[in-house]
Design a protein that fits this description.
A: mainly beta, Immunoglobulin-like, 9-stranded antiparallel beta sheet, B: mainly beta, 6-stranded antiparallel beta sheet
Chain lengths: 144, 146
């Protein structure tokens, strides 16, 4: 118990100039699949840093030059229709990132790295209700 | 005391991991459809008749349906050849060109997601030796969202 107390005191006593020592993720943009027409085939947004690609992006901040592990959703998520209240969904899966998921993150000299995230939207049925669809997914970064 | 230690430990572990919830978005719109109401019909003509023009207002008629207020592009052919019998000789063929549409090149669906599209064209003059009969050719009209 003393150990935990000391550990906590140490961690919280550390000068949080030290924002830089803590790992943080800052939102930059969401994942945009754009407009889909009923009957459209699946669409893959690649994890491209260009704004036009539609990929999501975050900035990971922490200790300069440190490495970290990036974790993306492993399962399919659902986008829900925001208007119809009919429970209509569209699946999104196969999340990919740049740098790739795993122990591939490396912060620069300022303790920052931009990560872009893409995924695949499933095909749209001819009877898919019209409207805007949205869903959430979690991105995690961990120091080894 | 234990609770405080637990909370402090969880908070400290959070210094080594970070999470961010992002959103994914898409918008689904209606597919665009084209339904023919009326063919392009040049009617009866005599051998040696001059060229005949049919304006879009008098020509083929289609209903375009899709997403309300969306603009769409219209593609019509440059020309087609009407044929009768085997259609092998010049006197068994009639050229139709100068296809025009209304609206021209692009349209916009109304608040119900509908618009009427009309297509006209010009039939070439007929030969004195033009073979009698019905001359037919299919032509393709394409609409796509802009």
């Amino acid at each position: 118990m003393r150990f935990f107390l000391l550990l906590n005191l140490f961690l919280f006593a550390t000068s949080p100039d030290d924002e830089k020592t803590f790992l943080r993720i800052h939102w930059k943009s969401d994942l945009q699949f754009g407009v889909a027409i009923q009957g459209d085939p699946p669409l893959t947004v690649s994890p491209d840093l260009s704004a036009a690609s539609g990929s999501a992006s975050v900035e990971v901040r922490g200790r300069p030059h440190s490495t970290y592990q990036l974790i993306l959703p492993q399962n399919r998520i659902s986008l829900h229709n925001l208007h119809c209240g009919c429970g209509a969904r569209i699946g999104v899966s196969e999340f990919r990132s740049n740098p790739p998921e795993g122990m591939n993150g490396k912060l620069d000299g300022n303790g920052r790295q931009t990560v872009s995230i893409g995924a695949t939207r499933e095909s749209i049925s001819m009877h898919q209700p019209r409207g805007k669809y949205a869903g959430s997914f979690l991105v995690t970064a961990i120091y080894p | 005391m234990k609770l405080i230690l637990y909370l402090l430990t969880v908070m400290s572990l959070n210094l080594f991991a970070a999470h961010e919830a992002l959103k994914a978005w898409t918008e689904v719109i209606s597919a665009i459809h084209l339904c023919k109401f009326k063919d392009l019909d040049f009617g009866e003509a005599l051998q040696g008749d001059p060229a005949m023009n049919i304006s879009p207002q008098q020509g083929a008629e289609f209903s375009v349906t899709g997403e309300p207020y969306r603009a769409y592009q219209i593609l019509i052919p440059d020309q087609v050849t009407l044929r009768t019998a085997s259609g092998s000789g010049p006197n068994e063929q009639i050229l139709v060109n100068q296809f025009r549409s209304y609206p021209e090149k692009a349209g916009r669906l109304d608040c119900d997601g509908k618009q009427t599209l009309r297509v006209g064209a010009t039939r070439a003059s007929l030969l004195q030796s033009q073979k009698a009969g019905a001359y037919i050719a299919p032509f393709v009209v394409t609409v796509m969202y802009q």
